[in-house]
Design a protein that fits this description.
Shape: globular
Helix content: 25-40%
Keywords: Iron, Iron-sulfur, Metal-binding
Number of strands: 25
InterPro entries: Asp_de-COase-like_dom_sf, MoPterin_dinucl-bd_dom, Mopterin_OxRdtase, Mopterin_OxRdtase_4Fe-4S_dom, Prok_Mopterin_Oxidored, YoaE_C
Family: Belongs to the prokaryotic molybdopterin-containing oxidoreductase family.
GO molecular function: iron-sulfur cluster binding; metal ion binding; molybdopterin cofactor binding; oxidoreductase activity
CATH class of the largest domain: Alpha Beta
Bound molecules: ligand MGD, iron/sulfur cluster, molybdenum atom
Radius of gyration: 25 Å
Organism: Hoeflea phototrophica (strain DSM 17068 / NCIMB 14078 / DFL-43)
Number of helices: 25
């Protein structure tokens, strides 16, 4: 941090209140030092918000570095050389928007409306600025967008079992006697989980158990470390359930009342012994037994299930298995007990106006964002029965960096017959390949509203400072394009962000923009019985499904009907199990690579700030020391790694504490941070996970050698 830009701590004129807009389950309530009408100082966690509890991550505390960054995009740019050459000419916003509209009209005239693909994701999680692009899409009948990068396997696995995507109040973690942090690197990715878990340890002597594939910053804080091999959590969970049944620690009365087939599960688990699991997941039999006894005897066990362990081709099954374990112990009946993954079901804000869902046409083809490389290189399956994509608006996402099968993504974005407009804050890997770049505002410069996936608050993020001259908010770009493309009279257009916020809040009976300005947030957590599923689980019969109907049970993120089930659905198991759907190692590719988030970047964001880059140092491959020795690799050596999708070079680091055969690369470094100019997603695959799609970012086989 020593050589980072100092944060201006000059006189604080006022304190503003906001929410962190980034794609992080913590969605922190923020206090922002306002130094001038266009300048911020420090950002802090709001201590008045019970979940944030005054704690935020270092990268957002230093937001001044990002918002006042000298490299922010300020002017619309039109490509003046070859794609990616870096030659631009500046344009007025009107001229740039005119050009985009002209290209969209032309593309539509030639190929039909589905040739235009508005593409977006999670740069900001604000409902107005993120989701408004769908209003333009639906009004124009442009191609639909299947957002499969992140939540699919996790949400599907959870909902298949519980019938809903919600759970016990996350604050209850502090009232637990055992907190199992499973497949989430919370210290790095959602720091507030640690606040509440550590409170339980301090105040109640609770044990913190971490289930992960390497000794990451979260596992370093654990009392019990369970180190599984990637993609084997199902085996571990099944063996733990086996022990629970065998030793009389399963809550049979509860199971008879609240689950579909406990007897079937018990008999299925007969052969899922700890010895069976040890051979698959690498966790010694005695550790599996000790873990099962700990959670079986500790009524108040809170299972905090993350996203990371579901980024495997069998991730849905593993999430469902971990959740099933929490049901077998009966943990849901107790305060401080149960399993929590996401509260996304509880918010129920009406987005029909902001997203224009009222004029959504189910006949329009869908494109899977994870398959953007295949889509843009003309793969017929990925094009899903529609025309080639020849025009795009990309807002709020950086697919040239974050999407799998990166070589195809780049090849596609370079196509001469593809027109790409990118609305961005920085010259990202994606923006570099655009035809038109539009500068975007940041969250403190526009109005929006946010939901906390990892907790239960809806938080207002009003405009607090003036943007520099140039950048416009996403909402304004969508409105301006709506006008130029002849849909501005459609319902939902012509409203301000505040109008949208007022509509969503008032329909939910939660007040409006002004009342939220005073109250800052609303807590919409369900009552105890509902949250703990004591009135029944979310399925019609109220029963938890140990035997999910993988392709028929409705899921929270159910893919559009027209896309249907995805991936090898016929290989999904009847009961919780280990299924070898993963990209297993083989003789040519003896290592399994996980590409886990780093602490100082947030997806591809913050890689532009000096303090984050300084902390992350350089792209690194974490190897087991014995694996390294076998390959003749020493700490700090340059290594090459690759598979059929491509290859990369980086430096070795030997202290990750994973099992043999597992290698880890942390962080979405910009592609240019690697020697060859290709990023980590060169190695990851875009094949869909069963049954409802999603990208298996942590499930990649590779070879590794000294470079
Ligand atoms: N600092 C920072 N914070 C972030 C992000 C970021 O990039 N940086 N990204 C944000 C986003 S978009 C999301 S979705 C969340 C994700 O946050 P998390 O839910 O924490 O998910 P990951 O960080 O992807 O992975 C969590 C851990 O799971 C491990 N893991 C991988 N495969 C397996 C497996 O098979 N089994 C087990 N048990 N563990 C496995 C990973 O190595 C990692 O240590 O974080 C958000 N917060
Ligand atoms: N290898 C590997 N790949 C991954 C992952 C992984 O763990 N490993 N994680 C995956 C996951 S979970 C996710 S969610 C995706 C995330 O993928 P993205 O959503 O693409 O990632 P972000 O970096 O969060 O945001 C993208 C861009 O949005 C911009 N942005 C922010 N706010 C605004 C705004 O208000 N307006 C506009 N126009 N732009 C804005 C930022 O500058 C940033 O460049 O990545 C996925 N890719
Ligand atoms: S990135 Fe996550 S932990 Fe950091 S301030 Fe935002 S919501 Fe909080
Ligand atoms: Mo994500």
């Amino acid at each position: 941090m020593n050589d980072a830009t100092p944060i201006d701590s000059g006189a604080v004129a006022a304190i503003g209140h906001s929410a962190c807009p980034h794609d992080c389950p913590s969605t922190c309530a923020l206090e922002v030092d306002l130094l001038a009408h266009n300048r911020i100082g420090r950002v802090r966690g709001d201590s008045g918000n019970s979940y944030t509890a005054g704690v935020i991550c270092a990268k957002v505390a230093r937001y001044a570095e990002r918002i006042h960054h000298p490299e922010r995009l300020l002017k619309p740019l039109i490509r003046a050389g070859a794609k990616g050459e870096g030659k631009w000419k500046e344009a007025s916003f009107d001229a740039a928007l005119d050009l985009i509209a002209e290209k969209f009209v032309k593309a539509e005239a030639e190929f039909g409306s589905e040739t235009v693909w508005p593409n977006f994701y999670a740069g900001t999680m604000g409902l107005v600025q993120r989701d408004g692009i769908n209003r333009l899409r639906h009004a124009k009948r442009y191609s639909n967008h299947f957002g499969s990068f992140c939540t699919n396997m996790a949400w599907t696995g959870f909902t298949m079992g519980a019938g809903a995507l919600r759970g016990p109040d996350p604050h209850e973690m502090a009232k637990s006697d055992c907190v199992v942090i499973w497949g989430t690197n919370a210290v790095s990715t959602q720091v507030n989980v640690m606040t509440h878990a550590i409170r339980a340890r301090k105040e109640r002597g609770a044990k913190i158990v971490v289930v992960d594939i390497y000794d990451n910053p979260t596992m370093k804080q654990a009392d019990v470390k369970i180190l599984v091999k990637p993609g084997t959590d199902g085996a571990f969970a099944c063996a733990a359930m086996h022990v629970l049944f065998r030793e009389g620690l399963a809550d049979r009365d509860y199971l008879n009342k609240f689950s579909d087939d406990p007897a079937g599960l018990e008999s299925h688990l007969q052969t899922r012994t700890p010895e069976w699991a040890e051979a698959i997941c690498g966790v010694p039999t005695s550790e599996i037994e000790d873990f099962a006894r700990l959670v079986g005897n500790t009524k108040r066990t809170f299972f905090r299930l993350g996203y990371g362990f579901t980024r495997q081709r069998n991730g849905v099954v593993n999430m469902h298995a971990a959740l099933s374990l929490a049901v077998v112990t009966g943990s849901f009946q107790h305060e401080g007990g149960g399993a929590f993954h996401s509260n996304s079901d509880i918010f129920r804000l009406d987005k029909s106006l902001v997203e224009g869902t009222r004029y959504f046409d189910p006949g329009v083809r869908w494109l899977d964002q994870s398959k953007i490389g295949r889509v843009l290189t003309g793969d017929a399956e990925a094009l899903n029965g529609g025309p080639p994509v020849t025009a795009m608006l990309i807002q709020n996402t950086n697919p040239a960096n974050v999407a799998p099968e990166q070589r195809k993504v780049i090849e596609g974005l370079r196509r001469e017959d593809l027109f790409v407009a990118v609305h961005e804050q920085f010259m990202t890997d994606t923006a570099q390949l655009a035809d038109v770049v539009l500068p975007a505002t940041m969250f403190l410069e526009h109005d929006d509203i946010y939901r906390g996936g990892g907790h239960q608050h809806i938080i207002l993020g009003p405009k607090l400072v003036e943007p520099p001259e140039g950048p416009r908010q996403n909402h304004d770009v969508i409105e301006a394009l709506g006008e130029r493309l002849g849909v501005s009279d459609r319902e939902g257009f012509g409203m301000t962000p505040r109008d949208h916020i007022n509509y969503m809040l008032s329909k939910r009976g939660l007040g409006d923009f002004e009342s939220f300005k005073a109250d800052k947030w609303a807590d919409v957590q369900a009552g105890f019985d509902e949250a703990h599923f004591l009135n029944g689980f979310g399925h019609r019969d109220g029963k938890f499904r140990f035997k999910p109907d993988w392709t028929r049970t409705p899921a929270a993120n159910k893919p559009p009907k027209r896309m249907g089930p995805q991936g090898p659905v016929d290989q999904l198991p009847e009961f919780p199990d280990h299924v070898e759907l993963i990209e297993s190692a083989d003789t040519e590719h003896p290592f399994r690579l996980a590409t886990s988030p780093s602490r100082s970047f947030l997806n591809s964001s913050f890689a532009e700030t000096k303090s984050s880059r300084t902390k992350e140092k350089r792209p690194v491959l974490m190897l087991h020391p014995e694996d390294a020795a076998a390959c003749g690799i020493a700490d700090g050596d340059r290594v090459a790694l690759g598979n059929s999708r491509g290859e990369l070079a980086m430096h070795a680091s030997l202290d990750a504490g994973q099992r043999r055969g597992v290698v880890i690369h942390e962080g979405l470094w910009p592609n240019s941070a690697f020697e060859g100019g290709e990023g980590i997603n060169t190695l990851t695959g875009a094949d869909a996970c069963a049954p409802y799609g999603g990208a298996a970012f942590h499930d990649t086989r590779v070879w590794v050698r000294k470079a």
